[in-house]
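Researcher: Let's continue the batch. This sequence belongs to Glycine dehydrogenase (decarboxylating), and it's 955 residues. Same format as the previous ones, please.
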Amino acid sequence: MDTRVPLSELEDGVPFADRHIGPRPADLERMLATIRASSLEELADTAVPDSIRDREPVATTLPPGASESVVLAELRALAARNTVTVPMIGLGYSGTTTPAVIRRHVLENPAWYTAYTPYQPEISQGRLEALLTFQTTVADLTGLPVAGASLLDEATAAAEAMTLLRRAGRASSPRFVVDADTLPRTLDVLRTRAEPLGIELVVADLAAGLPEGEFYGVLLSYPGASGAVRDIGPVIAAAHERGALAAVAADLLALTLLTPPGELGADAVLGTTQRFGVPLGFGGPHAGYLSVHQKHARQLPGRLVGLSRDSDGNPALRLALQTREQHIRREKATSNICTAQVLLAVVAACYAVHHGPDGLRRIAQRTHRMAAVLAAGLRSGGVEVLHGEFFDTVQVRVPGRAEALADAAHDAGISLRRVDADTLGLACSEVTTTAHLRTLWEVFGVEVGEVAGLDAETADALPAGLLRTSDYLTHPVFHEHRSETSLMRWLRRLADADLALDRTMIPLGSCTMKLNAAAEMEPITWPEFADLHPFAPRADAAGTLELIADLERWLAELTGYAAVSLQPNAGSQGEFAGLLAIAAYHRSRGESHRDVCLIPASAHGTNAASAVMAGMRVVVVATGPTGDVDLDDLRAKIAEHRGALAALMITYPSTHGVYEAAVREICDAVHEAGGQVYVDGANLNALVGLARPGAFGGDVSHMNLHKTFCIPHGGGGPGVGPVAVAEHLAPFLPDRGEVGAVSGAPHGSPGVLPISWAYVRLMGPEGLRRATLTAVLAANYVAARLREHYPVLYAGADGHVAHECILDLRGITKDTGVSVDDVAKRLADYGLHAPTMSFPVAGTLMVEPTESEDLAEIDRFVDAMIGIRAEIARVASGEWPVEDNPLRNAPHTAASLVAKWDHPYPAELAGYPTGAVPGVHDRKVWPPVRRVDGAHGDRNLVCSCPPVEAFAEGR
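Model: Same format as before. Here are the C-alpha cells for Glycine dehydrogenase (decarboxylating):
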C-alpha cells in the first residue's frame, strides 16, 4: 500500500487553526449532535439570518493561513525594516529598561496577560495587590492620597482630569486654561475632548501669569514639554484664589527629586508611567495615571482598588466604587473608559518594587546628570541652552541648523526632537550613556575633554527651592524584594492568588476570553517593535507602518467598511471616535442640529457614556420580549426625533446574544430618517467570515482587538479599539481632517498590534470563519446542555443563540434565595471563573465559551453548573438553610476548612464539590480569601497599600 503523502501537505506542519480552535473533529460531531445540527454550515444557515449573510465569495486581499514558522519569519522581516535609534526625542516617551525578571515573569507570563478584569475579587487578589502597589507608587510620588488603577495614556488622562475638575469645582465658567508648555499631543487630545462638551480651551504662557477672565481649571506641566522646570506653586495658588482648580501633568521619575505637585497645592496630578520599565512600543500601550485628593475620590474615572474584608474578617482587596462602572451608570457615567492598562500598570508597579525608592532616585539622578553634563558641554562650545533649570530635557537654539543637526545625530544613531527650524530638544533617559553625550557633542562640533572632569565642574540644573524633602515608597513592599529570588517569589505568590486563562476557561459573555497564542505574543518584546519611539522618523518605522497598513486593510475587508483607524487605544475610545465621525459628517452637511443618539436598553453602558462625551443626547429604545430591539418603540422614537436624529448605536449580535433578524430593517429606518448607524463590534466574534456590519447597514463600527483578534485582556488592559467607517465617513477619522486626536500616539498602541496581525495571518479567511462557527457552536452546546437546569433567557426564532447565552437565575433566586452572586462564588470552589454577572439583565449569568476551549473544559464548566443546580435543590428542599449552605458561604479557603466547622454541610463538600465533575480534585485552585464585603470597601476607601499592621490585625 502506498503510504506516501505529498510534500506540499507536509511542509507547513499542522495548520495553526487546528491549534487555536479547541474542539477536535470527534468533539465537533458530538457538539453538533447535541444541538441537533448536521454540520457547522447547517448551524450557520439556521442561526444567522439570511438577510445579513455573505452568500457570494467576498473579494479579499487576506492571504491564506500560514504556519507559525512562516508567520514569525514574515514578522521578523517586518521588524528588520525598522531602525531603532537611541530615543532622545522626549515628548512624554522615554527610553527605559524592562528588568528581565519582570519581562519574563509578568509581561511574557500568561498567568498575568490572560487574566480578566478583577470583578471577581476572591480569585483576583494577586492582580489587585499589584494594582494597589501601582496606586501607592503614584500616590506617594505625586503627593496626593488617591490614585486610580491606571488610565489609557498621558493625553487621555489629561482629558479625564479636565472633565474631573469641571465636575469637582464650583466655578460656572466653561473655560479651561492650559499652559503653552504642554505636550503638543496632549493639547490635541484636549481639543478633541473639549469641543463636544462645550469646554473652551485657553492656551496661555502661564509662566507670565494667568489670563484675564473666569475659568474653572488650569493644566500645568512639571517639567514642561520644553524640559523647563518652573515653580508652579504660585500659579496654583493664584488659580485657587480665583475659584479654579489645578491639574498638573508630571513626570513620575522627576518627582523622586522634585517637590511633588500635591505639596504645591495641585488638585489632580496626571501623566504616564511608561518610563517605569514599559517599552516604547511606537507609542503604546502605556499606563496613564491620575491622582486626586481624598475628597475627589468618587469623581475618579476608571477603576480604583481599595481594601475591604472577607466574610472571616480578613483583609481583602476589591475594585471599589464599582457602581461607577459604565454598564450601570450609562449616560450618567463620569467617563466612558472601560478598559484600563492593567498589564502595563503591573509592569510599572513591579519596576518600582524592583528598584525601590533608592533605586528610582538613583535612576533619576543619573538621568538628570546626563542632561546637566550634556548641557554644560554644549554651552562650552557656544551652543545656546534655552533653560537653566530642567530635569532630563535640554532645549537648544541653533539658528537655521536644526534639521541638519538632527539628521547628523540620526546618522550617528540618535533621534532628537525637531521643535522648529531653529530649535532642538535633547531628552536624556535611563538608557542614555556618556558615549551618547560624546556623540552629540561631536555632532554639534563641540570639543569636550574628560567627561568626569566636566561632570565634577557641573552643578545640577534642578531649582534649589523645589528639591524634594518628603519620603516616598515607604511601604515594606518597596524594600523587601531587592534580590531577584525574592522578587520572583513575590510575583509567583501574586500569580497564584489569581485565576487566569492559563488555569481554566473564563466563560465571560461579551468579553470573548479566547486563546492568546504564544506565537502571536512573542514578537511584542522584540526590540525592533518594542523600542521604537512614536515620533521617530517615518523611515525608521517602515516595518511597523506596513504592519499597521496591512491590519487596517484586513480589518476593513473583514467588516465590510472602506477605512479603519487603529488610533483608538481602547474600545471606549473607538466608540468615541466613531461618534465624533458621525457628528462631524452631519456638521459637514449643515446638519449640526442632529444630536440625538438612539441606544437600545440592552446596550453596553459605554455606548451611552460615549454618546454624551461626543455631545449627543441619549434616547433609550425599549427591548422586546424576545430580547430584540422593540421595532414599534424604535419607529416611534425615530418619528419623535426625526429632524434631530444623529445616530443609532446597536450591538450585533445583540447584547442578549441573539442574531436579530430585523437588523437590516432597523438600519434602513434610521437611514431613511437621515441618521447614521453605529454597529458596536463587541460581539464581532460571532460575525467574522459570516457577515459584515458594513455590508448589512452599518456606517461605523469599532472593534475590540482584545476580544475578537486575540490581544490579551491583561487583567483589564491593554485593549485596542479600531474604528471602521464607510467611505463617506473616512474623512472624519481621527487626525485625518476635522476630527482631531483621540489618543496620545498617532497610531494608538502599536506595540501590541503584531498580535492581531499574526492572528489574522495565521488563521487566514477560512480559519477565521471556522473560528466564528465553532464559537457559535460552543455557545449553543452550553445552552442545550444547561437549558433543563437553568432557563436560557433569549434565543433566535430557530431556538439558537449566537456566540453567548444568558442563563436566567431570577426564578431560582425567588424560589430558593440563592442569588447569582452565590452561584458565581461557588464556581470558584470548582476552580472555575464565573460568567458575566447581571449584565445585560440583572440576576442572570451570560456565558461565552469561545472557539478556543476544548470540549473537555466546556464540559467541566457545564458539569459544575449542573452540580451547583443540584446543591440549589438541597437548599430549596430545606436540607440546608438559605443563609448557611455551600453556595451562600462560597468561596471556601483552605484555612476555613481546618478551622472550627459548624455548618450543616461537610467541609469536604465545601472545598471539593461533587466528584462527578472532572478536574475539581486534581486541578483544585484554592481562593486566597472568602467572599469579599463590597459595601464595607466602598464605605472605607483605602486606596494605597495599607500598613502591614492592617493585615496583622485582620488575622
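Researcher: Any comment?
Model: The first helix runs from residue 16 to 20.
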